[in-house]
Amino acid sequence: MTFRAIALGTVAALALLAAGPASTSALAQEVTLRSADIHPDGYPTVEAVKYFGELLKERTDGRIAVQVFHSAQLGQEKETIEQTRFGVIDLNRVNMGPFNNLVPATVVPALPFIFRDTAHMRTVMDGPVGEEILKSFEPLGLVGLAFYDSGARSFYNSKHPIRTLDDMKGLKVRVIQSDLFLDMVNALGANATPMPPGEVYSALQTGVVDGAENNWPSYESFRHFEVAKYYSITQHSLSPEVFVMSKTSYDRLTPEDQQIVRAAAKESVARMRELWEARSGEAEAKVRAAGIEANEVDKAPFVAAMQPIYEKYAGTPELKAMVEAIRTTE
Ligand code: BDP
C-alpha cells in the first residue's frame, strides 16, 4: 500500500468516526430544497412556496425543508429554468410565458382572452386540462406540481392611454421571452421586444421600450408604475404561474416523500389565492394613489386582432382539443 492510499483511507475512517452512525443516517436523509423566484420577499408566489416548505417540514418531521431564493438571486427565469431542468436548482416558480417555447401545451392557458375570468381559469387549471399541462413538463426533465394565480395582464406605457388599436401602433412594448407573447403584441400593431423582467425598469426609463404588460402586483413591485404611468385594462392574458420541481431532485425522494411533495404543492394553491387577492387590491390602490392613470378598454377589437394567434400556436389537433375543452368548461 502506498503512503497516499493509507492517508486517504485514514481520512475516510476518521470522517466516519467523527460523524458517528446515528448522525450519518440523519444527515443522509435531511435535505433542503432550493427554490427560485424572481419576485421579492413577501410577494404572494414567494410566500406560497414558503408555505409549501412549512407543510413539507411538518409532514416529514423536519427531513425536508425548502429555502426560497427570491429577488432573482439565482438568476432570471430563462436561466433558472435551465438550471432546474438539470437539477442545479430543485424547485422553481415561473410564469407559463417563459415555458411557451419549450412546452407547447403551456401556450394554451397563456392565449389571449382564453379564459372568461379568474374563476374560469381556476376551474380549468384545477381540472383535467390543468393535469395534462402539468404532465407535459416531464419530457423537459421537470415535474409540474401546481399552478398559481397571476391575475390578468394589461398594457402600460409612458406615452398615452391605450383605448383603441390605433393607440398600440408603433408602441415599443417589452414582452416575456416567448414567441407567443411576441406575436400577440405584434398582432395588435405594436413592436414587441422580448426581454427578461429584470431589465424592464431601465428599458422603460431610458426609452428603449415605451411600455410593457403585466398584472397589478408586478406593475407595482417591479416599480414600473414610476416610469410608465398609463395603465390600460386590456386583461388580454391570464397566463398563470407554475410551480415545478427538477425531475432529478424528485427522483431522489422516496415514493412516500414524492407524494408528500405533490400534496403540499396542491395545498399551497389555496394559500396563494388568498395572498394574491389581497396583494392585487393593495397593489392597485398603491399605484393609483401614486398618481398613475388607469383606463378601461373596449376589448372586442383586441380579441378580434388576436384571433390569428390561435391558429398559429394552438393549431395541432391536441392543442385545439384543449382550447375547446377550456371553452366548454363552465
Ligand atoms: C410576472 C410573473 C413572472 C414573469 C413576469 C414577466 O410572475 O414570472 O416573469 O411577469 O413579465 O407577472 O416577465
Describe this structure as you would to a colleague.
The protein is α/β, with parallel strands linked by helices. It has two domains: 3-106 and 116-149 and 240-275, D-Maltodextrin-Binding Protein, domain 2 (3-Layer(aba) Sandwich); 153-238 and 282-327, D-Maltodextrin-Binding Protein, domain 2 (3-Layer(aba) Sandwich). The chain has helices at residues 3-19, 21-29, 44-59, 77-85, 118-126, 128-135, 179-186, 200-206, 216-221, 247-251, 255-289, 300-305, 308-313, 317-327, and strands at residues 31-36, 64-69, 91-95, 142-148, 153-157, 172-175, 191-194, 211-214, 230-237, 241-246, 293-296. The strands form three sheets. A five-stranded mixed β-sheet has the order 2-1-3-10-4, with helices on both faces. A four-stranded mixed β-sheet has the order 8-5-9-11. Strands 6-7 form a two-stranded parallel ribbon. Helix 3 packs antiparallel against helix 11. It is globular, with a radius of gyration of 23 Å. The termini are far apart. Residues 1-28 have low confidence and may be disordered. The structure holds beta-D-glucopyranuronic acid. Beta-D-glucopyranuronic acid (BDP) binds at residues 38, 77, 94-95, 150, 176, 197, 214-215, 218, 241.
